Amino acid sequence: MEARCRWAGWKERLCSAEQAAALIENGMTVGMSGFTRAGEAKEVPRALAERARQDPLSITLMTGASLGNDLDKLLTDAKVLSRRMPFQVDATLRRAINAGEVMFIDQHLSETVELLRNRQLAEIDVAVVEACAITEEGGIVPTTSVGNSASYAILADKVIIELNLDAPAELEGLHDIYIPQMRPTRPPIPVVAPDSRIGTPYIPIDPGKIAAIVVTHGKDSPSTLLPPDADTRRIADHLIEFFADEVSIGRLTPSLLPLQAGIGTMANAVMSGLAEGPFDHLTMYSEVLQDSTFDLLDAGKLDFASGCSITLTEARGKRVWGNLDAYRDRLVLRPQELSNHPGIVRRLGIIAINTALEMDIYGNVNSTHVGGTRMMNGIGGSGDFARNAQLSIFVTKSVAKEGDLSSVVPFASHVDHTEHDVDVVVTEHGLADLRGLAPRERAARLIDQCADSRYRPALRRYFEHACQRGGHTPHCLEEAFSWHIAAERDGHMRRFQTEDAGARRGEHREEPPVAHPA
């Protein structure tokens, strides 16, 4: 215990989770650690939910991203949450959000603490942060994520620390905590490469704000990634071929550029596929480091990875957490306002690979809303990267629900990433390079290269009809949402399907040559 908690005043702050939860009052704004089911405070939220069942209260809850260990479900069921931001993945909370019972603020992940610092959001009353150690000065050493924990702890009136003795002690030294100065005299953030270290290995706070220390023993929830299937392997193959072509043309080197990949099975499978490509000395500047990061490290393909959390499947976690020293000098975890910082993303020339729910024929991407109205998870960091990356790539399977829904539609039901932020689109059928194309050219290419063969003829008919109407971005407004209306009314889009034996085999027209930006 003394090795983990080196601050002299720790014994005076030691208490139970229930005693710590009592510091959180009705109507407060609470900032909790946690990013993509990693590094969340585990016991105080449980105690808070249990208390709320007897003594109702509600709070505004801010985190880094999603919480693990079913904490969002527990807090939702106990009616603790009145407002939640900036990201979530829990089915119970999602239902409450879509029912209007919890007000959800869907934010770019780089912006939350910037808004807090500038007092554009309610001030943090209490921060609850998981730590693997407390330094002699009272500094907090995070566990498997940094997320927004640093700024929450610095800005909060009171700080509750969950000292998790099950978290590997070897995590200490992995973090790089840097807080940007206030505007308008802020100097440039001096991250010039994925392996730049510019801060401290702990969160520096005034120890006088430490109101409680709760000793815990708990694991992060393992990632629920699915293994790659035939479609995701084809998507990866299309991307590998594209990157190889970019290298041969001279727009990329064999080490590519720093890579970012969104969360989930699709992006993870695509990144894992790079191990089979002709690339070496890769680097990552991303948010969450998933199984694919360690696949590439183990394959000798990846030299260094920067992120703000590590989220692993159970099998991969056993290998990594039991052998963390083998990776320590090739990893760094930062606050998410740095891992996702638009200026750093642009400076490093990131290749961003994110997943779309749907896209329209012009390349507008919906990442968040099913049917245009029902929140799925949130925009997360995809917007931070898409607008500022050197290459902004979106991947998705061309259909959902076993072909009943097309992921390529005439008009996106909700737009998170406009056509101006989307360079390349990839499905299992092909890759559409949209750089340097006008809307009419983008539509023709995206339909031919990426749409499922059963929906391709209907999309072409819509586009041709719209072109007859004219306009820079042709549309038939009375038909634009007919695909979504069919899905809402019938539960499927099958009325727009056309059986085309040749197209069904994945055939499509050759991509016409198009001049690319220099």
UniProtKB/TrEMBL annotation:
Keywords: Hydrolase, Transferase. CoA binds at N377, G381, K401. InterPro entries: AcetylCoA_hyd_C (IPR026888), AcetylCoA_hyd_C_sf (IPR038460), ActCoA_hydro (IPR046433), ActCoA_hydro_N (IPR003702), NagB/RpiA_transferase-like (IPR037171), Succinate_CoA_transferase (IPR017821). The active site is at E287. One of its GO terms (biological process) is acetyl-CoA metabolic process. GO terms for molecular function: acetate CoA-transferase activity; acetyl-CoA hydrolase activity. Residues 9-214 form the Acetyl-CoA hydrolase/transferase N-terminal domain. It comes from the Bacteria. Residues 319-462 form the Acetyl-CoA hydrolase/transferase C-terminal domain. SUPFAM superfamilies: NagB/RpiA/CoA transferase-like. Pfam families: AcetylCoA_hyd_C, AcetylCoA_hydro. Belongs to the acetyl-CoA hydrolase/transferase family. This is Acetyl-CoA hydrolase/transferase family protein. It comes from Halomonas urmiana.
